[in-house]
Amino acid sequence: MALSEAFLCLNPMILSKSGANFGKQRNLGLAEFHYSLRRSRNRIKSNGFWSAGCCSTDIKNRTKRSSCFLRCKCQKADSVNGLTADHGIPASLSGKDSRKSVEEEAWDLLKESVVYYCGNPIGTVAASDTSSSSILNYDQVFIRDFIPSGIAFLLKGEYDIVRNFILYTLQLQSWEKTMDCHSPGQGLMPASFKVRTVPLDGDDSVTEDVLDPDFGEAAIGRVAPVDSGLWWIILLRAYGKCTGDLSVQERVDVQTGIKMILKLCLADGFDMFPTLLVTDGSCMIDRRMGIHGHPLEIQALFYSALLCAREMLAPEDSSADLIRALNNRLVALSFHIREYYWIDMKKLNEIYRYKTEEYSYDAVNKFNIYPDQIPHWLVEFMPARGGYLIGNLQPAHMDFRFFSLGNIWSIVSSLATVDQSHAILDLVEAKWSELVADMPLKICYPALEGQEWRIITGSDPKNTPWSYHNGGSWPTLLWQLTVACIKMNRPEIAEKAVMLAERHLSRDKWPEYYDTRRARFIGKQSRLFQTWSIAGYLVAKLLLANPSAAKILINEEDSEIVNAFSCMLSANPRRKRGRKRFKQPFIV
Fold it and tell me: Per CATH, is 113-571 categorized as 1.50.10.10?
């Protein structure tokens, strides 16, 4: 093979760290080189070589969408790293051996869900439900949906697919993203992407793969995915901890990607609080459910991503201001959530006796919460032992609903204190029949019903009471619950939940979610063979078999944050206003 041919057949993911030089725009190394060749019309037809295409000019005849693609002239590999390229019909529908264990069946289904780009595994589709006539976007690779798949592959020693996913999605971060002539911040990660095979320049005899990202401009509701970049950082850290390969996170382009996400999240705005202000539908609950403002799920992921990023950022002079802002935000965020989001029977009684309309720097009821907001269901729901972090906090409004992912990830990330973490698990045990019942785990509790449902959801026919995001039960939450239980040395809770799920998941063909109060029905619009239901179960099984592996996801409590929290707690709430007392950029 000639030297030039050998160069062009290099693995696209092996990009020299020293060869990247970043200014205002990310240098794509070999990709940029190939793009310059394409601009000169000197097309090189080489399998496995990819380039960063440019929107409007290069693909205007293929799509009217003003987005950009990663493209590759390639042939799909028969097998990569033990993963078969044949991911058509799920094994459960193809007449294969039905005597396999639930775990073996799950692994077969997960491998069949793998998506390939240029012959390389790059992610997993959201669902492989061939019984559904409406595909919508379930044939795409979602950032948040791939996280349990990626963790499962890491724990199994299949590292390539996770590495490819991290690096290819990183390249999508810089693409132009516009809706109605408006572009969001530079660091935004896509919600999902799809691998499309298209004719090359109208020639049907030659095809190329392109990655087509969706940043929310095609999503239902047109909401940008705030959680995608946060999950990407969490997975990047897990990859490094699991493989021992720190070269990926040390790459210049990866370091730049981390900084872009952080700068987007830490940007100054009008908000007075350290929590991230987001719109409804910007996370796992991606439809209108009244979570706009400062939802707990986003804050827990934000806190976790900040800690993970701090571990991975290279100590450079150019990063000093960013790291300083990051540390300040961590302290303020942890205090704000632990102090104002926490609720147990003692705190509930305090709120019941709150005075209102306190105009003072020393106010106890800082957010002017009216005691009449306490819902009747909460009085019966709150156990004598246990507590949780509420779903949202805004002026004159507390969302008292229990959101599972936000509370669980607050345990994993150490956003909740040790005592609070145990109290959350105490509540899960005490309210097992409400939060778990016949299938783990309720995404939120309770469901919105009646007039409240009509006003808050807009009469959403998919989020009817005790269905989908409105009190539905999601098996994928098994893996997050397992990590939290292992961290708090209470794995028996997760074991009980996994045993319960095993009775139904395979028989029910791995649904996306379950309906009704006790999760007895498969969701009325639930997709079958939902990949993150499969992967969530597998990760839970793998972690229970090897609890020490959970450390790749856990953030231990930071001693500096604990000390700062103690100082702030001793000075709150009745402290004199002063300019130099605390050098914090946020009011806490």
Answer: yes
